[in-house]
Structure formats: C-alpha cells, structure tokens
Design goal:
Residues 30-148, 187-246 form the A-factor biosynthesis hotdog domain. By secondary structure, the chain is of the alpha+beta class. The protein is built from three helices and twelve strands; from the N terminus they run ββαββββαββαββββ. The protein has two domains: 7-156, Hotdog Thioesterase (Thiol Ester Dehydrase, Chain A, Roll); 171-301, Hotdog Thioesterase (Thiol Ester Dehydrase, Chain A), CATH 3.10.129.
Length: 302
C-alpha cells in the first residue's frame, strides 16, 4: 500500500519566488559526503515554522553522470540531511537511518532538454518522536513542480549504533570479490562500471555488485551497503524487466535491515498488476541470508 503523496502541497508552490533567497553555502559534512564535488545543494534558508527552502544545481557530468534517478534520489537525501543537521539539531556524530522513502516525478523531467541548471526544494519537517522525522518535500524547476517526496528518517547515538551493529560495525572495506556485471545496456547504463547487478543464472534475479570503487554510490567507507546503492539496484532491475523507455514516475521504498558486505544479496524483480492500465508496476526485493532487506515498487508509464 503506497503511502499517500501530498497533492495538496501543489497549492503552495506558487509562493516560492516571493520567499527571500537562501544565503548559506552547504558543507559536505551536513550531507554525509567526503567529496565536495558530490554536493548538489548550494544554499538553504528557514522559512518560518517547520518549513525550509534549499537550492540545488545539477552539474554537467560529475560523479553522478547524467542519471536523473540518481541525481533525484541524491537531491532528496541531501536536502533532508542538510536541514536535519543544520536547523533541527540532529547531531553530526549520530548515525542516520532511512526507514522509507516515496517520491513521484513528472515523466517529462527525464527528457534531456528539461535537465535543470537550478532547482528549488521546499521542505516541511514534522517529528515522529524525539529521534525521528517525517519529511515532506517538493522540487521545482523553473517554477514548475517536477517531483514530490515523503520520507522518514531517524538517528542513533554512536554507542547504541555500535551495539546494534555488533560484529558488522567493523567491516573489511573493499576486500570482497565483485562479480562480473550485466551488459550495461540491459540495465540502462552507458558503462559497465555503473552496473550494480550481476547474472545469477535465474530469470529476473541478480546478485548485487558491492563495488566500492563506484564513487557515486560509495563516497566513503561505511559498514553496510548504502541505501542509495539499493535504490540504484532497483532502478536497474526495473529497467531489465521492462526494457528501454519505461522510466519510473513513482518510487516507493522500504528498508527493513542493513545489507551487509559479507554475504550475497539477491535482487528479485517482478511485474505485478497495477490499478492504472497506463502504468507498468514492478516490485523489486532484496534478499540476504534468506531475509528480506528492502523492497521498492516502481510505477513506469507504458
């Protein structure tokens, strides 16, 4: 059951150009990155109450290439982390946990001629509890609403996180063998080093390639596979089962447990019935050690 998107937020978008321009630059630490060039955000400001504004610029090329899905998910992720740390008191020393993330995007936003130089992001934050936030987010390009997102994230103190992670808190970074990739065109990539799926020998099942040399997904050493890499795996799996021309216009993601580096993670994809006859719905599931780790549902236009 997809969580409802915030259609009533559309009525707020006409006011954004009357809001004072954000005035502060964005430190890479606020978005959990080690490479400043990977920071897509440029400035932010508080609008009063629980509302904030962020501006972003999508560069030509760069570590994320021209992948609209990757740029979009990074923009959502970075905007939420920025305001959490800079305005709402989430400690930089704590670990943040993405619990789920849904978003919709206009289909024509994938067209090359519509790639934006600048984006305006409007965010509203509401506390779920003292260590968890609900984020409502709208993205505008040239004053036009092009995407909306709804997500929950929480945070945990270093000592508690270490106890939670146990033996997985210290990971042998980059030592695991990385299996051969699928052909890049099968998953909508232009280069083999962008591919995160490997053949499994089974139809519509692949092994996740945990390739830490992929700087777009592994900016720095972490003790588990980042959520961004899992969403990218879901995009590539959906492309593999639907073929070219079926770019997702709605993505619904739930993260159940950490994906570890010390065991294979299997990515399964299946086309399921959709209530909209104009949409192809794909369900993607990650399984590790016979337990579900995450699930993503993607709706793509026929």
């Amino acid at each position: 059951m997809p969580k409802a998107m915030l259609s009533d937020r559309r009525r707020h978008t006409h006011v954004v150009h009357r809001i004072a321009a954000p005035v502060r630059s964005v430190p890479k630490e606020f978005v959990h990155l080690h490479q400043q060039d990977s920071v897509l955000l440029t400035k932010w400001s508080a609008l009063g109450g629980d509302r904030y504004a962020v501006t972003a610029r999508w560069p030509e090329g760069g570590v994320f290439g021209d992948s609209v899905p990757m740029l979009l998910t990074q923009t959502i992720r970075q905007s939420s982390l920025l305001i959490g740390h800079a305005e709402l008191g989430v400690p930089l020393t704590h670990q943040t946990l993405m619990e789920w993330m849904d978003f919709t995007v206009s289909g024509d936003f994938y067209e090359p001629e519509n790639k934006p130089d600048n984006l305006f992001i409007l965010l509203t934050f509401k506390p779920n509890n003292p260590r968890s936030l609900r984020v409502e987010l709208s993205i505008l390009s040239e004053g036009r609403l092009v995407a909306e997102s709804l997500l929950d994230f929480s945070w945990i103190a270093p000592g508690a996180y270490r106890r939670l992670r146990g033996e997985h808190a210290d990971v042998a970074w980059g030592t695991a063998a990385v299996p051969a990739p699928l052909p890049a065109h099968v998953v909508g990539c232009s280069r083999d080093d962008e591919v995160v799926l490997s053949p499994s020998g089974q139809v519509n099942r692949w092994e996740l390639r945990m390739d830490v040399s992929n700087a777009a997904l592994y900016d720095h050493k972490v003790d588990h596979v980042p959520g961004l890499a899992l969403i990218e795996a879901a995009y590539q799996a959906a492309h593999a089962v639907t073929g070219p021309g079926h770019t997702p216009i709605r993505v619904m993601s739930t993260f159940d447990r950490y994906v570890e580096f010390d065991a294979p993670c299997w990515i399964d994809a299946v086309v399921v019935p959709s209530p909209d006859e104009n949409v192809v719905r794909v369900e993607i599931t990650g399984v590790q050690n016979e337990e579900r780790t995450f699930s993503v549902t993607m709706d793509c236009p026929r």
